[in-house]
Amino acid sequence: MALSDKQARFAEEYIVDLNATQAAIRSGYSERTSGSQGQRLLTNPKVAARIAELQAEISREIKLDAVAIAQRWADLALADPNELTSLIVGSCRHCHGENFQYQWIDEAEFLDAQEAYFALSDDARMAKRAPVMAGGYGYRWRRQPNPECPRCDGFGQTRAAFKDTTKLSPAAQALFAGVKETQHGLEIKMNDQSKALELLARHIGMFPSKVEHTGKGGGPIQTEDLTAVKTEEELIEQARKLGLDPGALGLGGGEETQE
Questions:
Q1: Are 77 and 198 in contact (CB under 8 A)?
Q2: CA-CA distance, 198 to 107, in Å (whole number)?
Q3: What are the pLDDT digits (tens) for 124-171?
Q4: Are 75 and 174 within 8 A, CB to CB?
């Protein structure tokens, strides 16, 4: 039998948000019984088949299948976060200054600092030191820290460096979840790599959701009650049938050796 109009509508509504209760309501079923109606419709073979058809149509339309989804998970799980942001250690202002004095980038930076200092009120200037050129010019924060620097003790300064997100690899693009502006500055948001790795592992069968133990021919596991056997010879025979080493069980001195 073909689907009724309401059943066909339910299938179309269900794939919108995968919410059976809301799909039932939007399809014209009673809101009071929509929960049970939705679950009943999902177990209807014809409705389930129609839902599968619609999902397949969507997959073809957007060119997305199980392989593409698994590849997306793999890209995300294996992406290198350093493609998005890095914590870089560089020199402090004193590392390479003359006599370890404060070093300026260039003369323009020094003159700007002087101008800003003399623009302060008298009280504000009293609370600050006037800029001096004792350390010279040429500061570059990407230079290696000076292990002899008395100010940073050779540890330098750490800075966060953000990468150009328009030039990311496919894996890094999967990891990148946007930028958030906080009171401390910009924050790079990343998708959950651990969850992606778990999904990928389940997809390839590393974590089976159900483990079944069966015996020969798919039947139940055969067990033997060795305590019911009265003689040592029978115990040895039963142990060998079960693939056990009689010697390991203290029977008969272990497996016989071939001369």
A1: no
A2: 55
A3: 888 888 999 999 999 998 899 999 999 999 999 998 888 888 888 888
A4: yes
Contact 132, 97 (CB under 8 A): no
CA angle (66 as vertex; 61, 72 as ends), nearest 5: 95
- Please give the full DSSP string across 196-212, using - where no structure is assigned: HHHHHHHHTTSS-S---
Residue 214 has phi, psi (to 5 degrees) of -130, 160
User: Which has the closest alpha carbon to 197: 71, 65, 76?
Assistant: 76
From residue 217, how far is each of 38, 72, 142, 213, 214 by CA, in Å?
40, 39, 68, 12, 8
pTM recorded for the entire structure: 0.45
Instruction: Dump pLDDT digits (tens) for 51-108.
Output: 999 888 877 776 656 677 777 778 888 888 888 888 889 999 999 999 999 999 999 9
Q: How far is Cα 165 from Cα 84, in angstroms, rounded to an integer?
A: 7
